[in-house]
Design a protein that fits this description.
It contains eleven helices and eight strands. It is of the alpha+beta class. Strands 1-4-5-8 form a four-stranded mixed β-sheet. It is globular, with a radius of gyration of 22 Å. The N and C termini lie far apart (55 Å).
Length: 393
Amino acid sequence: MTDAAELRARTRELLAAHPPAGTEPLDFLKARFDAGLAWVHYPVGLGGLGVPRSLQAVVDAELAAAGAPDNDPRRIGIGLGMAAPTVLKYGTEEQKRRFLRPLWVGEEVWCQLFSEPGAGSDLAALGTRAVRDGGDWVVDGQKVWTSSAHLARWAILIARTDPGLPKHQGISYFICDMTDPGVEVRPLRQITGEAEFNEVFLTGVRIPDAHRLGEIGEGWKVAQTTLMNERVSIGGMRIPREGGMIGPVARAWRDRPELRTHDLHQRLLTLWVEAEVARLTGERLRQQLVAGQPGPEGSGMKLAFARLNQEISGLEVELLGQDGLLYSDWTMRRPELVDFTGRDAGYRYLRSKGNSIEGGTSEVLLNIVAERVLGLPAEPRNDKDVAWKDLTR
């Protein structure tokens, strides 16, 4: 059994063999993956050592102290937080070895082809079709709100493979090559002025059956692994005290005493405490993950993340007064990542409006928490046993 001392020794061996100051970042990351120090709880040969997830902090601390490069999780967050755990759980050995290493080192960016114009909150109503043609599946449809599609090499995709079954049953899960013919990515300009999101049109896209995850018709079950991990990765990110959105407003309060009022003080204190409670709850949630797969508690964390971001950014704009109304740049860009803390207050205020939509709307997450955490009765649903093709759309 590998313990903390052995992990420190392994990490120091990696640093000695590949000194960060003299090694290309990508080469260092590949060596780290091959040494099993990428995500230590993953199996041997897949970037890990099969040891408890909690020991990852030992490796991370040694590497941070040595100034080692990271894999820029903000740029490849969908791959790390959503695609990787799904491939690990449902992928074949060949799929795991093909996809996990370039995903983790950042050579290949991933995106998520789930939501559709008519299937957002009710994701199981999706209409993108995948029809079997020999050893391939031919996919036609449209996806929307796809982060990083303009950068992605691969996508996790759910599509309808049997319209004669109820909506949750006739779905299968695929890995789609975003460079294949028939994949068209169009920018969606947001309230921030940027096009961080995209809509994706799929026209006769051929996906080999070897790129299917899970059994045919079990895509909804596979997708639940993705969605639960997504909500944990959004709402349960590891941040220091006063990290995230509360940091800039706390700094503004300290640096500009002329802006202070009693009312703003009370509101800031309340939100600071709530942000700290959410941070500590996220730490506890990550500790629970050591024992198994993420559960519905991640939905509660994502709910808190969205509400807090919106309330904190609103307080910051109000605190800054007329300066809070400034917006630095409306240039149409297609960014590589979302940077909440490195931008101005106006950007944080506008961008946070999407937090209650992306990663599952707050309304849907409230239902999940009510039913799966609190054990309240489920909402009546009249379409669960009706074939998808017979649903009113």
